[in-house]
Amino acid sequence: MMLSSLFGLQLQVASPLLAFVLVASAANFNQDIQVTWGDGRGKILENGHLLTLSLDNSSGSGFQSKNEYLFGKIDMDIKLVPGNSAGTVTTYYLRSQGSTWDEIDFEFLGNLSGDPYTVHTNVYCGGKGDREQQFHLWFDPTKDFHTYSLLWNPKRIIFSVDDTPIREFKNLESIGVPFPENQAMRVYSTLWNADDWATRGGLIKTDWSKAPFTASYRNYKADDACVWSSGKSSCSSNSSWLSQELDIAGQQRLQWVQKNYMIYNYCTDTKRFPQGLPKECTAGAG
């Protein structure tokens, strides 16, 4: 249905009701997160304030949020696998269910000691992705925790690192570009072995003598998100993010990252799209 006069936006949502209520979040993994696989390799520690995922040559591990969300701003502090992480992939993403799922991806591709991680981003709608952008970072993401954020509102998706935007994907349904807005999604994270492709196209394999590999998480925040339950979406009373866009300073930071740290952009890959680049690329929204 269409809801008007909400922060000046026309919001199209799948729910029959978009309610605004105070949604409390204690930022506690015991309350907010469920470790879903790994046979003990995923651990919630420090009274719910720290979570670790581990990978060895038998299995990786993963977790998901207990809530589903239809639009939101999700923050997570992550310290990635240190040392020789080649072959490993740490993921942090939003995803819906079913064969025509929607998904908003951060993937962190490991590397040899001293070589930079690759931050892989993608947006899926209706089970179709192929919207990859990849970056290096301007710091070592294994030395300390850094905040990785996904802002998903009806007009745009913004990927940020330590409050610096690295990618914006705009809603261009008006010109026929699919945009994820009708399926509620959970937050997921996994640590797994992908040495058939993750590092230098699979040339560098996982060194299992360095196992277990461990990624650490803290300060999960989904206060600013619309919780989907019983067929409707309930948003927090502080919902200015529903109309949030990049200001001039944010646009300048985005341009700085993309000029200096972007290493792949599907919107410039003419060999991959010989019949023409996707519509969002020519419209400047990829």
Order of helices and strands: EEEHEEEEEEEEEEEEEEEEHEH
Spans of at least 5 consecutive residues with low confidence: 1-26
**What is the count of β-strands?**
20
Number of helices: 3
Structural class: mainly beta
Portion in helices: under 10%
Specify the overall morphology: globular
Strand content: 35-45%
Please state the average pLDDT score. 90
Gyration radius (Cα, Å) is 19 Å
Distance between the termini: 26 Å
Quick one: biggest sheet? 10 strands, mixed
Describe the 3D structure.
The structure is a single chain. This protein is mainly β. The chain is 7% helix and 42% strand. It has three helices and 20 strands. It has helices at 29-32, 248-260, 279-282; strands spanning 2-6, 9-12, 18-20, 33-37, 42-45, 50-55, 61-65, 68-79, 88-95, 103-109, 118-124, 133-135, 146-152, 156-161, 164-170, 186-193, 213-221, 225-229, 232-235, 262-265. The strands form three sheets. Strands 3, 5, 6, 8, 13, 14, 15, 17, 18 and 19 form a ten-stranded mixed beta sheet that branches. An eight-stranded antiparallel beta sheet has the order 4-7-16-9-10-11-12-20. The chain has a two-stranded antiparallel ribbon with strand order 1-2. The protein is globular and about 50 Å long. Mean pLDDT is 90; it is low at 1-26. Residues 1-26 form the signal peptide. It is found in: Secreted, Cell wall; Secreted, Extracellular space, Apoplast. Its EC number is 2.4.1.207. Residues 23-217 form the GH16 domain. This is Xyloglucan endotransglucosylase/hydrolase.
Task: Report a brief summary of the structure.
By secondary structure, the chain is mainly beta.
